[in-house]
Amino acid sequence: MTAQEVEVDPVGAGQPDPVISVRDVWKVFGPKASEVPKSPELCALSRRELMDRTGCTAAVRDVGFDVAPGEVFVVMGLSGSGKSTLVRCLTRLVEPTSGQVLFEGEDILAADEKRLRDLRRNKFSMVFQHFGLLPHRRVLDNISYGLEIRGVGKAERAKRAMEVVDLVGLSGYEKSYPDQLSGGMQQRVGLARALAGDPDVLLFDEPFSALDPLIRRDMQNEVVRLHREVGKTMLFITHDLSEALKLGDRILIMRDGKVVQVGTGDELVGAPVDDYVRDFVRDVPRANVLTLKWIMRDPRPDDVLDGPELGPDVVVRDATRAVLAAAAPVKVVRDGELLGIVGDEEILAVVAGQEADA
Amino acid sequence: MAAVAVSGVDFRRPSRGVVVALILALWLALWAVLKGLHTLALGPAQLTPLHQGLNDLNDAIGASRNTNPLFLYFFNEIRLVIDEFVILVQSLIAQPAFGRPLPLIGWLGVVALAAFVSYAAGGFRVALLAAAGFTFLGLQGLWQESMDTLALTLSAVLIALLFGIPIGIWAGLSDRFAKIITPVLDFMQTMPTFVYLAPLTLFFLIGPASATIATLIYAAPPAIRLTAHGIRNVPGDTVEASESLGATRAQTLGKVLLPTAKRTIILGVNQTMMAALSMVTIAALIDAPGLGKTVIKALQTLDVGTAFNAGLAIVVLAIVLDRVTTAAGTRVERARQNRNPLAAKVRTGGLIGGGALTAVAIWLSYTYVWAAEFPSDGEIGGSIAKGVATATDWVQGNLSGITNGVKDFATLVLVDPLQSVLTGSPWWLVAAAVVAISVVLGGVRAAIGSAVCLGLLVATGLWQDAMATLASTLVATAAVMVLGVVVGVWMGRSSHADRFIRPVLDAAQTMPAFVYLVPFLALFAASRFTAIVAAVVFAAPVAIKIVADGVRAVSPTTVEAATASGSSAWQTITKVQLPMARQALVLATNQGLIYVLSMVVVGGLVGAGALGYDVVAGFSQGQLYGKGLAAGLAIVVLGVLLDRLTRAAAARTGRA
């Protein structure tokens, strides 16, 4: 979301090793599902054709990506795009048909049942769209459920649960039952349950889709805050582009089970790979997403180059005032090197929405 | 597309009705000519080779019971284990045991225990109800009988749950297993209760084991179904959340699935309990001790007073068991809402105090005769019986004009003509007509099913009796459907009516089938008509509920649209609600038929004759055993025939 994180390129050399690496993952439902990923011919078919040919549904098709430590990685797509199935493949709540899921270099798909349970207990936690709370347990017992099944003692469970209760802003509701809470508060319980086990990775499956818009915004801010405070790696599923742009360091757009594009928010808006993505991002307020590097131009001979300097990753909205106030165009500079300049015209084109499609 | 489908229906439906009418007309015409020919009549004491063969089989099994390995190592073992278990429960509360002249726990102890268990499971109000109810049983002079019934019911319920809940969990978790078990459960529940008593005695002798197993067959399905339903309905997210946190399967089952499904499972326990009580009373026919036996004896001697007294005891027992288990179900919810710490303290205190009192009461009832044997001074059972007998006499003396009028009218106008057509036609004519109707209503496959069933009926050698039973069943079902549509539509359209009538129907459904015979015996004396009326009353609640739900399920928008275009209430009902609730109507007919059939057969006890009588006679007379068995078979075949035919018709209607 911010300029510094955009620079992280997890596959690049010298970068930290990815926490999660997903390679060629397929999930096919139906008879003889395992045959589909093996056959190049079947792989080439569209979902519809595959259905007609074999009776199989390919929910996830040849998906691969990396998630860096501490990153918020968003998978976005419309309903039926396979994003919920994909996130379930990571911890094998849904067993992938083929491919590799590496967690810190270990292949999760090769793990036996016990190892898988260990991973689920200690390394991953998930937050669900419909909360998935236990109606017969109080808030505190819901939160400590994960610790309970790990065999943590009662006193320690309660202590740890109280800590996360404070962290997610549920203080005073510890003794309530889920059905006595609003949707937003219930999802806080879901969040607290996920945090209680102190996992390395948090998975969110459309956690806020069932909430009304105001509460959704609150909860999104809550996630931003939590990410700042606990700094965990997060993988976030959503169908809401503004949510994706707000939370995601990088965003993966899925369609019909396939990856369409992976990139930062400004990359998606500034350089959509195809009409589908372009259509998707059409209504995004570009000034809030694009950075100066997307709108700068090369200096012309008649330009006066004594304007103020700004970095290439400054968001247009934040630069607007400075550019308009300056008498000369703003110089976009990185490490003392002049990359380009931005004048009133470029800024106004974005702010007023008149910029030609890139 | 839709318009084409609709016009297709319009074109076909009347034509189907016309074809059926034509078949019936042709049948009537041929009946007039061929009356009395090939009717396969069989006198009450006459036997066919099949019946004789079944008798011989019975004798052979009796002779080899202690030599045949299948019996030695299988049936006899099961019988012994169940017998032992039932006798243990009986010796606790019902029968003299361990060298004592009285059971271990006397009346005071049982009343205290019942109240305490009710308090723990439900709450203070049901505890009071249980204590009052049980005391009333004693006052009726039926303590021993009631305890016998209770002991048998509880043993059967315990065994049913022991098997039923694990099977239900399995069925809830595995789709494949659910697919296998569902038709089995359907079969267990649709078979008339009366029917499997006799075959069971073949393998397990007359006694507690047969009674318990019969009860199990009838009572276990609700527990299995509702457990599976409860497990299945736990939200997927919740289960996934548990798995995503690394729970083992056992942890997910014990900490998520079972607690979440608890309420539904308790509902299953409730239904199993009511079904068990109902069956235990019927099992009196194979010598199960208890209230059922009192009712049957009284019915056979037409002693309405005594039958009423014992029937009332069954009702009291049913109400107590139903209320307590229902309260246990709602407590699961209530406990969660109630966060008042004082209430929790009161409850803990109540449990400790109540437990202590109960222990004292049990000790007293173990030690002292006055607390063990219900005192006979305050008995009111005799007066109840006498009062009812007087009332019955008065009704029969003074209202006989009305009751006989109703009875004779219905018998002459409805039952007799139908019965004489069915029993008087040559068997092949009836068979041909039924097969032809099957083709029209359900297609070729339904017709083949019908033909097989009809062949089996002929083979049982009880064709004419079967036709007589069929006549009563059809008349009663027609009455049930009239009631079902009238009351069901009323309930479906008015939530007021629904709110008042539904609890009555629920209560009526928890009553054991037997009890329904008593009041009608008082009104109409022993006759076919009595059995028919009892069957109508027994089956109506189910049919009414299904119709009401069907009418209610019609989309309100559609009804609103009909009203907006100016339909009168009558037009809305006949042109919108009933046609759209067609599926429900067919289902109601199907269920109505099954319920009626099982009750018409019980009516064999009060003069309904035909198959029901054959079964009852088979229990009591050795040389008619095989015939009774064949009659039971004929009832099942009749049930299957009617069930399949209505289902096939329903599938047709659904498709069209």
From TrEMBL, chain A:
Alphabetized Gene3D superfamilies for the sequence: P-loop containing nucleotide triphosphate hydrolases (3.40.50.300)
SUPFAM superfamilies assigned to the protein according to its UniProt record, in alphabetical order: P-loop containing nucleoside triphosphate hydrolases (SSF52540)
InterPro entries documented for this protein: AAA+_ATPase, ABC_osmolyte_uptake_ATP-bind, ABC_transporter-like_ATP-bd, ABC_transporter-like_CS, Gly-betaine_transp_ATP-bd, P-loop_NTPase
Signal sequence, renumbered to the chain: none
Gene Ontology CC: membrane
Segments crossing the lipid bilayer: none
KW Hydrolase (keyword) present: no
PROSITE patterns according to UniProt: ABC_TRANSPORTER_1, ABC_TRANSPORTER_2
Keyword Transport: yes
GO biological process, one term: glycine betaine transport
Keywords: ATP-binding, CBS domain, Nucleotide-binding, Transport
A molecular function GO annotation: ATP hydrolysis activity
Domain ABC transporter: 45-281
NCBIfam families: proV
Family according to the record: Belongs to the ABC transporter superfamily.
Protein name: Glycine betaine/L-proline ABC transporter ATP-binding protein
Automatic annotation (TrEMBL), chain B:
Molecular function GO terms recorded: amine transmembrane transporter activity; carnitine transmembrane transporter activity
Membrane-spanning segments: 17-34, 101-120, 150-173, 193-219, 265-286, 306-325, 346-366, 427-458, 470-493, 513-544, 592-612, 624-642
SUPFAM superfamilies referenced in this protein's UniProt entry, alphabetically: MetI-like
Alphabetical list of InterPro entries matching this protein: MetI-like, MetI-like_sf
The keyword Transport appears for this protein: yes
Key words, A-Z: Cell membrane, Membrane, Transmembrane, Transmembrane helix, Transport
Localisation per UniProt entry: Cell membrane; Membrane
KW Transmembrane (keyword) present: yes
Membrane topology: Multi-pass membrane protein
GO cellular component: ATP-binding cassette (ABC) transporter complex
Every ABC transmembrane type-1 domain range: 146-325, 466-646
Stored Pfam families: BPD_transp_1
PROSITE patterns in UniProt: ABC_TM1
A GO biological process held by the record: choline transport
PANTHER family reported in the protein's UniProt record: GLYCINE BETAINE/PROLINE BETAINE TRANSPORT SYSTEM PERMEASE PROTEIN PROW (PTHR47737), GLYCINE BETAINE_PROLINE BETAINE TRANSPORT SYSTEM PERMEASE PROTEIN PROW (PTHR47737:SF1)
Family: Belongs to the binding-protein-dependent transport system permease family.
Name this polypeptide is given: ABC transporter permease subunit
